[in-house]
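User: I'm putting together a teaching handout on how multi-component assemblies are represented. Below are the sequence lines for each component of a complex, exactly as they appear in our records. Could you produce the 3D structure of the whole assembly as structure tokens, so the students can see both representations side by side? Please keep the chain order the same as the input.
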Amino acid sequence: MDNEINQYSKGSAIESWLIPLIIIIFCGFTYWLTTGFDRMPPILKRGIQPSDFPQLLVVLMVGLTALFVWKDPIKVSEKIPTPTFIALGMMLVFVLLVQLDFFFGLSIFCLGLTLLWKDRRWFTFIFVGLLVPLGVFFLFDQVFEVRFPRGFLTNIWYG
Amino acid sequence: MDSFFAGLIALADPSLVLLLVAATLGGVVIGALPGLNATTGAALLLPFTITMDPVAAIAILTAIYCSATFAGAITAILINTPGTSASATTCLDGFPLAQKGEAGRALGLAVVSSTIGGVFSVIVLMLAAPLLARAAYSFAPPEYFALTLFGLSMLATIGGGSPIKNILAGCLGILLATIGIDLMTGVNRFTFDMSVLSDGIGFVPVMIGVFGISELLVQISNNQAGLERVKLKAVKLPTKADYLKVWRTILRSTGIGTFIGILPAEGATVASMIGYNEAKRWSKNPEEFGKGAIEGIAGSEAANNSATGGAMVPTLALGIPGSPTAAVILAGLMVHGLRPGPTMFTEQSDFAFSIFWSMMFVNLLFLGVGLWGARIFARVTLVPVQILWPCVFIFSVVGAYALDQSMMDVWIALGAGVLGYFMRRYGFSVVPLAIGLILGEILEQRLGQSMVMLKEQWWLLPTRPLTLLFLVLTFMALFGKPIWNGLIRLHSKV
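Assistant: Of course. Below is the structure of the complete assembly, with chains in the same order as your input.
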């Protein structure tokens, strides 16, 4: 138990400086990107240069980050729950499966979600993995005339 | 006056009425489902409304807004789980009253209070929005810039995050709005030579991500197995004695809610908290609060529903969203090519009044829905989460794709969902991000126009009286509380 508490406080301590660090690195990278924007001659710049506004925001964000580290540091009481971690991983799998077929990826992801909620009934599998994606596909295809990306399943309908 | 009646005549269209009835029922279901709220519901439905007529599309979104805000009370009273955050205070007295076997009385009071609050706020909306728009008609770019800045400064107090983190999230939203071709100069910014990013990041996929997908990631770790349900035999109207006891509370909370709603970025949740607290403060029996006081239910529900109409005032008249859901509605207006602001009441006043009358219709409609259908709608809480959330994910992803039939929007929605989850985890509200994204482009445009107008002498901004007023209000919104606290500390030391 003590080990768990120690792990939490250790994790929280790391996150309390890691998050501001990530924000500052992001701001630094963004600022560097803005330096590569085209600059307009004075007569065409219409008030401000294209890089001025993003640069102003980035500087403000760095200032606010410093302020929240000082006044309101990040406190996390618990680790990221395992189901959330798995769901995040499943999103990556979804991105890969979508390359094969959009609705295949959706079905597999949703089946994974039902399993994460510890539901192993056939009815749920068929409803969430088959009936809902199929219903949504035909709703959008027939009513809203949306054309989905081709894949091994959608090709059965599209020909 | 012509527009006033033209808006009413729009409701004579049976297809619009049918859509509004369907949207109201859908909104009640969304509001009754714990985890889903008006903002998420409106964001998920936004892609479906793109191909519709603008009046029908925006009327549907406002119907979802009004009915979902009310419906949060159903689950708050029956299962002690607020369907929406705006109903959290309704739990405090609604559930104890239901446990005493008076669930019907609690729901009846919630419905009547919500309807009175909602109808009053729509009347205020009808009167105040055109007046506010007329006042804003004389605004030049510096005034608009300062006003937009003031609207953004109100983000400091929105949601559950700390003010500093909220403003930081708002800045990130504004930064995201700079992606794409700069409209003032035609220069590409943050596009990484990808043509798909030239038009910038769409509001809809980001809204779907931060409100829908991030909520899924939060909900997946929640266990809802332990819900306690109260049996509901019948829903009955409050008695005459109940009315006599709460009428002052309803009126007070209606006023509070409408006022809070009008303030940019403040929404129904803040209104319900203040409405509840004031009901307790003014009550002759404050000790009954938390044990089933009917004034507590009335105070919370009248305030949260009156905030819906109030929130639409700055949204339509100034283009500054009055609440998170109003931000989604604002995104819907912009997707349909409508620019909220003063011109809406001169060039599109028929449209504006159609929306007002639709909101009035919906507020009256859920009186019936709430009184006779609460028992049925309470059953939606029986939908298992393992079916509900996969369905939400499918609609989120397909909805994001359907808008422009672009996979990039799907990736943006997923990315925004993951970002939203981590923002919430570390105490950043996602609402400022969404509002920043919507207002970012306008803010930059108005800053640029102001610089042209003032010949790049930005220090002349405060020399314009209205601009100075908005800048002072912005300063007060950001630093008022710390300064006030500092003064109190100083005074106590002396």
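A couple of points students might notice: Chain B is about 70% helix and 0% strand. Residues 2-493 of chain B form one domain.
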